[in-house]
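I had to read the description of the data format several times before I understood it. The format is easy to grasp once an entry is in front of the reader. For illustration, here is how one protein appears when written out as sequence plus structure tokens:
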Amino acid sequence: QVHVVESGGGLVQPGGSLRLSCAASGSIFSIRSMGWYRQAPGKQRELVATITRDGSTAYTGSVKGRFTISRDNAKMTVYLQMNSLKPEDTAVYYCNARSGVDYWGKGTLVTVSS
């Protein structure tokens, strides 16, 4: 069993930055990859970024060049640095840990608005 807890959401103006954190605990040795997904009001949940155990990353096109995913293996924490935020980035952001089974956090709300 793996538990993931997100933090770091909030209200930010367009063009601003936020950093999300996701701490994993439990059977962390089984985790193969971790990632961030988001769900905007009225829309389906979508992939934002992922990072594998060996550090390989992938991003959805709309965030490339603006968001950076990273991980601290010692702390078993994954970060999402979000820069140049846009109103369309407004969503609940969910952390995912994958080990053959998907584990999800409860989400953290990011609101980009002036």
Observations:
- The chain has a mean pLDDT of 95.
- The chain is about 0% helix and 55% strand.
- The two ends are 40 Å apart (CA to CA).
